[in-house]
User: Which sequence fits this backbone?
């Protein structure tokens, strides 16, 4: 009998369009592998989801991104219903989604993180939180939504802060110069390291998802010691948060003139994108794992903890 998969996508976060793209690609791959797939565009009306869940699918494939789908919310519902689902569980999802908390966990595990503080918007309107350059970002969004690099003599960012729509807190981190590095982790294996070269000034939402917005260099052309270090940091971060399934660690590698030559862990993505331009499928292909094999593995390793 074919395994029945309920695939959740869409949602209501700013990453909705990315989730829809991820969902379509994953549903297509699973159907080609013989699974019976029902794809649902999830909205805030969870009551509409209950009749679907009452059919007791064998697996729920979570293709949601951002608030509601990546922060432990939908994971909690699936745990209550004892339905196996893909990717990380409630606690790991919630920890990873709240960046300041994840940073605290990483630091306690001895992982290298950039110095950072959490400020309210009104505090930032009154004074700079640290010398520029620094990065201002929402505490609980993904896909670089709301991220702004603040450089010297730039006061325009305060206009954005005055219209801040991503909650009552803003995470401020020291800007780390150098290269954008990312690592895919699958289960207990770090698959490889990719360098991201954005076409614009930094790896923002457009660079991530627009065709040609960035180049993915896999394997990353960095010294072997740094490459191995990135693999190690990503796997340790995955374990520190208690992630399962597939995750992606984002890092910076400061190899600039006068830089410290160190790697810095920025965050963990527990629901990494699975779009045609996404990083995890690129890295998996380098490791010899095709897209269909990747999504099949996620389904066959789905579970609930309840």
Assistant:
């Amino acid at each position: 009998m074919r395994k029945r998969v309920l695939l959740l996508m869409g949602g209501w976060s700013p990453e909705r369009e990315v989730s829809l793209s991820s969902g379509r690609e994953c549903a297509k791959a699973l159907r080609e592998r013989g699974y019976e797939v029902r794809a649902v565009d999830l909205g805030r009306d969870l009551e509409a989801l209950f009749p679907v869940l009452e059919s007791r699918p064998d697996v729920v494939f979570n293709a949601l991104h951002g608030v509601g789908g990546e922060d432990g919310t939908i994971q909690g519902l699936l745990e209550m219903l004892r339905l196996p689902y893909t990717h990380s569980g409630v606690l790991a999802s919630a920890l990873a989604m709240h960046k300041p908390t994840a940073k605290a966990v990483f630091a306690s595990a001895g992982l290298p993180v950039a110095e950072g503080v959490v400020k309210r918007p009104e505090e930032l309107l009154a004074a700079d939180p640290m010398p520029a350059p620094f990065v201002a970002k929402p505490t609980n969004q993904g896909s670089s939504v709301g991220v702004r690099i603040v450089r010297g003599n730039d006061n325009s960012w305060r206009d954005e802060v005055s219209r801040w729509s991503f909650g009552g807190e803003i995470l401020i981190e020291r800007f780390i110069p150098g290269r954008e590095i990312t690592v895919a982790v699958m289960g207990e294996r770090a698959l490889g390291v990719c360098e991201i070269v954005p076409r614009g000034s930094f790896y923002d939402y457009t660079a991530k998802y627009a065709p040609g917005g960035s180049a993915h260099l896999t394997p990353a052309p960095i010294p072997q010691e740094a490459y191995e270090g990135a693999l190690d940091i990503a796997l340790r971060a995955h374990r520190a948060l208690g992630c399962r399934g597939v995750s992606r660690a984002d890092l910076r590698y400061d190899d600039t003139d006068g830089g410290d030559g160190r790697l810095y862990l920025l965050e963990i993505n527990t629901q990494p994108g699975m779009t045609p331009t996404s990083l995890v499928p690129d890295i998996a292909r380098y490791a010899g794992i095709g897209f269909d094999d990747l999504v099949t593995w996620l389904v066959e390793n789905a579970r609930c903890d309840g």
Q: What stands out?
A: The first strand starts at residue 4 and ends at 10. DSSP finds eleven helices and twelve strands in the chain. The two ends are 25 Å apart (CA to CA).
